[in-house]
Write a structure and sequence with these properties.
elongated; 152 residues; alpha+beta; 39% helix
């Protein structure tokens, strides 16, 4: 088990979660046509020019383990098709004949909490990586195996 690879995968997962949060918050006021059918999975932060509504994203984190005992986590970013709703806005350029436009149903509080949690997860994994580095340096120094270790 490689502690550094686990910490790096955790940092990558937290970074992906932060990207999803940023995309959802940036597009929460998007308006589009009446058809809330989800488009293909967009790039994080992409907006639609086709009249389809922005579909909020969700980050699904899963644990992984490799054949050599390596472990870590990975994230898949998926659209959340249930997170699009209709809002009465007859002035919206994409409103249907009855005045309804599709809007993303983004919960700002949930996204804020998810962003804070992702920040803490990133910081925790960074601390693990720094501690592993410090322990390796100490081991090499104490066992006399290091000829020249540059201190950070």
């Amino acid at each position: 088990m490689d502690v550094a690879s686990i910490a790096r995968s955790g940092m990558a997962a937290a970074s992906a979660q932060l990207s999803v949060v940023a995309s959802n918050l940036a597009n929460q006021q998007s308006r589009a046509g009446p058809d809330p059918a989800p488009p293909a999975i967009p790039a994080v932060g992409a907006t639609s020019s086709s009249g389809a509504p922005y579909v909020p994203l969700r980050a699904m984190q899963t644990s992984v383990s490799g054949p050599s005992g390596a472990a870590g986590t990975q994230v898949s970013v998926e659209p959340d098709p249930g997170a699009v709703t209709q809002e009465y806005d007859p002035e919206a350029p994409y409103a249907d004949p009855h005045g309804y436009a599709a809007v993303p149903d983004v919960d700002v509080l949930k996204e804020t909490v998810d962003g804070i949690m992702a920040t803490f997860a990133f910081d925790a994994n960074l601390a693990v990586l720094a501690t592993a580095d410090e322990m390796t340096r100490t081991f090499l120094r104490e066992t006399g195996r290091a000829t020249s270790i540059q201190e950070p």
